[in-house]
User: Fold Acyl-ACP thioesterase from Aerococcus viridans.
Amino acid sequence: MGLVYQELIKVRHYHCNALGEMTLPAILDIMLIASNNQEETIPEAKEGFREQGWAWIITQNQIDINRLPRYNEEIIVETEATTYNKFFSKRHYALKSKDGLVLAQAETTFALIDLNHRSIVRIPEIVAEWYQVEKEVKASRRKRLNKQVKVDSKVNRFEVKFLDIDMNNHVNNTIYLRWITNSLGMDWFEKYTPINYTVAYEKEMYLHQEGKVHSDLSALSDSLNTGDTFVTQHVIDSEDNAHCLTEITWQVK
Assistant:
């Protein structure tokens, strides 16, 4: 296992929706900020990435939610790089209450990209040494998600805007989750809460590109009662490519 990093944060209004619950994009954003902050505490990693023109990109996120953090709550953010192989590194994240209860936890798969050539590169052993992470004995498999929804229950169109783009000149990972959650609307979150989601990032999107959010909500039934769960599928695509694949498990409030 690797170096463990923790920080205490307060849930601000911009982390939350109108119900005072932390949003799915904010959960991911807070986790990624913690791992970026950890890198600041490892001078060799910070300097090495700058010199080589490297950056981490997310290929898949699997997040379990026991309870959504709420506005004004103080929470502990914890992260640790866990394993790596030739092309992928895994990192664990947790959001905890101040008394140590796990509110949400994630396993995130990263690839190392050469920003100068926009291509994925092998992870050198020196990178693993910086984070004190062990090599995988047996390569694990990613969860497979469908590149097309079975039922097009809902379709939302969008255009990539300037503020959707980050410093790597592509759509930021959190924006895909924002597009999906916005497509569902406030009424949805008044009735259902997310307890698990998997997001796979397939292909980058760029400024002014047009796309669609396809949502399969066919598992939702009028017979569901409080505490029951169901799964939805979401695909973000453009004319030629699937860009983001998502599966979310919901619980009826």
